[in-house]
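Sequence in, structure out. Go.
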Amino acid sequence: MSKRFPLVIDYDDNNKIIELPAGDCLNLENSDICNVGNITVVGGKLTIDGKNVSAFSGYYQDLIDPPFIPETLIDLGIVDGTYDQVLHTDGLGGFRFRDIRIDYSS
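Output:
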């Protein structure tokens, strides 16, 4: 099957039906495109709901507007404990730093 351009009405030539001329665009305002198998964009950018869509290479640095990934507890707003403390959780999502208790009597 050959590739075809959409048919449009040429108002400048007695309303003849012609293929969409190269360099022109098809205005689909207030319309939808359904059941599309493939979309190819050449020399431009594809946007969906105003957001750029790009092929993803698999690398985090290639993401558009990537989320923040914390590197330390302080990055999460957790105040650091003092020396020789451990982070203790209550099993319900709460946490705090506690002193290490070691029983040396045994």
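Check: DSSP finds no helices and six strands in the chain. The two ends are 84 Å apart (CA to CA).
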